[in-house]
Design goal:
Rossmann fold; 6-stranded mixed sheet; 10 helices; 29% strand
Length: 248
């Protein structure tokens, strides 16, 4: 599904990614761990096409297409979804209108007719249940006045509506209490299929206890320096990252 080869990227002239190689197959969940400033969020922003980041060399292919040749909105329509570390508020734009516009834009990109209003509202009701999103929240402006947990839950709801083939969760566990973390993680797990994949960015083992990744990577100074199974995340939780640095 996703093939990244020797990816170098910078922001404001400062190189952050220094040769990333990563392959994510259909149905796989990859966890990306590392200390602050290691380049985890930079990688997610480069994949989705954030204009502040410049790719200086390397390649990214998504389902056989050259991702770097696509605009950010085209990448989203192709099936890439980013759950933000700090979801933004959009005052004056209701969740209903926001999601209907996003969903129909994706359908138009793929040559489909807009979803009829009745079918859209039925779909919203079905997807809300997955993350236990209150109907009152769904009818308010996007994330306006939401708690941290409600914002993250809303992100997973949006993911459920758009049905991406690759989801990137950028520190979705940040600021969540135990109950909110469980609801968000269980919602994500209900959406997993053999055809969908994910990259989960986190500092901590607790989210991975719920998501059960297939592969765990450690990112240090803009490079993936260690790859292993779920046991690698457990070891990092126990020992931190310094032992990996000492072995480099």
């Amino acid at each position: 599904m996703l093939e990244i080869r020797d990816l170098h990227a910078s922001i404001n002239g400062k190189e952050i990614l220094r040769g990333i190689n990563l392959t994510v197959a259909d149905g796989e969940v990859h966890a990306l761990m590392g200390q602050n400033g290691a380049g985890k969020s930079t990688l997610s922003n480069v994949i989705v096409g954030h204009p502040a980041y410049e790719v200086t060399s390397g390649s990214i292919h998504f389902n056989g297409k050259d991702l770097l040749a696509l605009k950010p909105e085209e990448r989203a329509h192709e099936g890439i979804f980013l759950s933000f570390q700090q979801p933004v508020e959009i005052p004056g734009v209701s969740m209903v209108n926001f999601m209907r516009a996003a969903l129909n834009a994706k359908r138009k990109y793929h040559g489909l007719e807009p979803l009829p209003a009745g079918d859209f509202l039925k779909l919203m009701r079905e997807k809300r249940k997955i993350v236990e999103l209150d109907n009152k929240l769904a009818n308010r402006s996007v994330n306006e006045g939401f708690s941290g947990g409600e914002k993250k839950r809303n992100e997973i709801f949006q993911m459920a509506m758009l049905e991406p083939s690759l989801s990137i969760l950028d520190e979705t566990d940040s600021g969540l209490d135990v109950d909110a973390l469980r609801i968000v993680a269980e919602g994500f797990n209900r959406l997993r299929t053999p055809q969908t994949s994910a990259i989960v960015i986190t500092h901590y083992q607790r989210l991975l206890d719920y998501l059960k990744p297939d592969v765990v990577h450690v990112l240090i100074d803009g490079q993936i320096v260690r790859t292993g199974g779920p046991e690698l995340a457990v070891e990092i939780e126990q020992r931190g990252f310094d032992w990996i640095k000492a072995e480099l």
